[in-house]
Write a structure and sequence with these properties.
By secondary structure, the chain is α+β, with helices and mostly antiparallel strands. It has one domain. The protein contains two helices and six strands. Strands 1-2-3-4-5-6 form a six-stranded mixed β-sheet. A hairpin with a 2-residue loop joins strand 2 and strand 3. The longest helix has 16 residues. It is globular and about 35 Å long. The mean pLDDT is 91.
């Protein structure tokens, strides 16, 4: 399962659980006065922790590396389309609110929202 480079601008190396070397796709976009940080799961090309399990720790590492403030970003997790026959490998985007309770932390985004902030 290779992830198309269209999903990211760079590969971001981060420390996952137990400081394990991990990587994700990263895209940062500004739209309507907001900064969107989009992390993409790389599946087999990620040697460590997934973006979902890394969560806030990953967001904090990205903000530190890119000079961003965690409270000023919209953090988005992307599960890219891998052209698999299995539906759980379909493209999905989730806005993550680290201040919400666990039940309301993830909000699946509509296609129109995604296209708007990606500038497509």
């Amino acid at each position: 399962m290779k992830v198309s480079p269209e999903y990211y601008d760079e590969i971001f190396e981060f420390k996952g659980e137990w400081d394990m070397s991990s990587s994700c796709g990263l895209k940062i976009r500004s739209s309507e006065g907001k900064t969107f940080v989009i992390v993409t799961e790389l599946y087999q090309d990620n040697p460590g922790t997934s973006v979902t399990y890394a969560g806030q720790k990953l967001a904090e590492q990205i903000c530190e590396a890119k000079g961003l403030n965690l409270s000023d970003i919209v953090y988005v997790e992307c599960n890219p389309n891998t052209n698999s026959k299995l539906s759980f490998y379909d493209e999905e985007y989730f806005e993550v609110n680290f201040n919400a309770d666990i039940q309301h932390r993830y909000r699946q985004m509509e296609r129109e929202e995604i296209l708007k902030f990606l500038g497509k």
